[in-house]
Amino acid sequence: MTNHELEILIKELSALPKECEWVEFKVNNSNPQEIGEYISALSNSACYHKQAFAYLLYGIEDATHRLVGTDFHPLAEKKGNQELENWLASQLNPKIDVNIFEADIHESHFAVFKIQATRNTPVSFKGEYFIRIGSYKKKLDDHPERERQIWKVEANPVFENETAMASATEDDILQLIDYPSFFDLLKLPLPDNRKGIIDRMIQEKIIVQHGKGFHIKNIGALLFAKDIDQFENLSRKALRVIFYNGNNRINTIKEQLGKRGYASGFEDLIKYLDDNLPSNEIIDKAMRKKVSLLPLLAVRELVANAIIHQDFSVKGSSPMVEIFSNRIEITNPGKPLIDPLRFVDHNPESRNEILARFMRRINICEERGSGIDKVVFECEYNQLPAPEIIVGDNYTRIILYGHKTLRQMDKRDKVRACYLHACLKYVSGEYMTNQSLRQRFGIEEQNYPMASRIISDTIEAKFIKDYDSESKSRKYAKYVPYWF
User: From CA 420, how far away is CA 463, in angstroms rounded?
Assistant: First the structure.
């Protein structure tokens, strides 16, 4: 976790109206026994509240949530001859991940313990079990009703590691998996014999040996299937592309259902979209050339995100790309794990980390946190409306709009663009100003009141705020996102 990511996390958690049962604030209390007890209590409480992680933060006042900093440096602390981190881990049962991060933020020191929520089995520290009740640490034995609930929470299966096809032979694997694409995308030399091919697939964990045969894992089939329909449990996960005549779904021109795995078929998919997206012809230096109404780089990023962040537990649904005359809608099954308003600045969280890691390895998606930034930048660079994010009961949809003049944009369009512009400036180490917003919308300097009106509307919507509320100068005012 980088210092920037840690700062965002600390600010988010400190903004909670009060400590919850899976978050604890401290300033300087560094007693190892108490830390261990809190780790047990927080892990068990996170499980009870269906949270993936709990947090123990140092440098935040309990009562006021002010960021005051701490003198505690847990990574340098020892318990006897052991490093504190190792000693704490050795006293926990069952073993859970406890990661310690430290950072200096605005000249103050902070430390964060990120604690994995237990599953199915309560966590003890030195043989004793704890839990949080309200803001207090209690013995778990005194709250049997909560202990019963913890025992009922099953460990979450990892979809990518589940079996797509059991008891496959070497011939099955070579017929079903696009192994030339597998080696090409991973930039590995193709072995000259089948044993070398199979051994490498086992090494990369897309298949596993089982007796004399093999199991093809979901991750292998999803990414590298020659025909995903050959895997019965995955056939409904193929990506769909639908073209409509006009701006609604009444008349469908054509529909294309992906057959190949996400990785092996990705570049062909993007080329197919590029060839078929709505476009205009312009004459440049006496030559005609096609200009797409939507930036292909933004489309590429959003398609990759839809694949990576889909919720595989949503049955009968798959990522989908719908192309209209004036926009493109990219939808994936499942709700996002983070607030859509924080997509630009927040370190992304994925349900499918194995899939995400593989997609990053083969350069299909961007490094953490930069994909959505690029989408917003591309929209600004091309002076298009800002992308719109819609979260439904079991889906997430991002809409990219074709060109609109400022007059054609409604108030929601302008406020959304202003907010995302402020976010993009912030993550770039800059601040939004009236001038930068004019550049974003292509507003002439003499029409600065138009930008001022948009800024005022966005402040009223509580999406941005003054960076320096004490300043009386409006001409040089700077603005930051509401969560700054």
Answer: 9
Q: What is the CATH number of domain 238-401?
A: 3.30.565.60
Residue-wise pLDDT for 380-395, tens only, equals 999 999 999 999 989 9
Neighbours of 106 (CB within 10 A): 8
Which top CATH class is 3-152? alpha beta
As a whole-number percent, the residues of the chain with pLDDT over 90 amount to 67
Residue 302's pLDDT is 95
| b (16+ CB within 10 A) / e for 451-483 | beebbebbbeeebbeebeeeeeeeeebbbbbeb
Looking at the DSSP assignment, which residues form a beta bridge with residue 209? Answer: 214
- Sheet containing 124-125: order of strands: 92-93, 124-125, 128-133, 136-139
Residues 428, 419 contacting (CB under 8 angstroms) = no
Cβ neighbours around 292 below 10 Å, total: 17
For residue 17, the model assigns a pLDDT of: 73
Residues of the chain with pLDDT under 50: none
CATH code matching the domain that covers 411-481, chosen among 3.40.50.10860, 1.10.10.10, 1.10.287.1260, 3.30.460.10? 1.10.10.10
Q: Which amino acid is at 457?
A: D
> Which residues of the chain form CATH 1.10.10.10?
411-481
User: Using one digit for the tens of pLDDT, what is the confidence trace for 106-134?
Assistant: 889 999 999 999 988 999 999 999 999 98
Query: Using an 8 Å Cβ cutoff, are 371 and 364 in contact?
Result: no
Range(s) for CATH 3.30.565.60 in the chain? Answer: 238-401
